[in-house]
Amino acid sequence: MKNTQSAETNAETVTIVEFSSTGERQGETSVPKVVKNESEWKQQLSAQEFEVTRHEGTERAFTGKYWDQHEQGIYRCVCCGTALFNSETKFESGTGWPSFSAPIAGENITTIEDRSFGMSRTAVSCSRCDAHLGHVFPDGPRPTGQRYCMNSASLRFVKG
């Protein structure tokens, strides 16, 4: 992920990959970072979406709307609409959260070390708006070996 600061506008931009509603890659683009205050996010999001995406919460296992979803489509950020995951990489992990073997584009997510709760994990966020999405673990299926364990509350599914 490449972040730049514009001297003229002082607005941060990020480079993401755009995708059509059917999952077709449209190409890289530089877009303004989405920045809102807590009040603005609360107006846009449900209480659970706000807690998960803006305060790094976690929904209870087997309660989210997408953990058992099997339709074809794209999973987008509930906060800003950035494409994050494709149903083609979704798999049954048995954890009770939607799990993916890879993001739709590496540019669209950011990972950071998370040492909360006495654990060492890798947190996953949306590159465009910094929404907390979930965590990635090194116990997924081939070919990536990764399990992107996401909160349904951080995602919006768009049928392909």
Provide a descriptive summary of the structure in words.
By secondary structure, this protein is mainly beta. The protein is built from 2 helices and 12 strands, in the order βββααβββββββββ. The protein has helices spanning 38-44, 47-55; strands at 3-5, 12-19, 25-32, 73-77, 83-86, 90-91, 99-100, 109-114, 121-126, 132-137, 147-150, 155-159. The chain has a 6-stranded antiparallel β-sheet with strand order 6-7-11-10-9-8. Strand 4 (73-77) and strand 5 form a beta hairpin. The longest helix has 9 residues, at 47-55. The chain is globular and about 40 Å long. It starts with a strand and ends with a strand.
Gyration radius from CA atoms, angstroms: 15 Å
| Number of extended strands | 12
Structural class: mainly beta
Q: What is the ordering of alpha helices and beta strands?
A: EEEHHEEEEEEEEE
Shape: globular
Rounded mean pLDDT is 91
Specify the helix fraction band.
10-25%
Main beta sheet: 6 strands, antiparallel
Output the strand order for the largest sheet.
6-7-11-10-9-8
* Count, helices: 2
β-strand percent reads 35-45%
Q: Show unreliable segments.
A: 1-9
- How far apart, in Å, are the first and last alpha carbons? 26 Å
Question: What is the secondary structure topology, with strand pairs?
Answer:
Blueprint: E1 3-5, E2 12-19, E3 25-32, H1 38-44, H2 47-55, E4 73-77, E5 83-86, E6 90-91, E7 99-100, E8 109-114, E9 121-126, E10 132-137, E11 147-150, E12 155-159
Antiparallel strand pairs: 1-2, 2-3, 4-5, 4-12, 6-7, 7-11, 8-9, 9-10, 10-11
How is this structure best summarized?
The protein has helices at 38-44, 47-55; strands at residues 3-5, 12-19, 25-32, 73-77, 83-86, 90-91, 99-100, 109-114, 121-126, 132-137, 147-150, 155-159. With 160 residues, it is mainly beta.
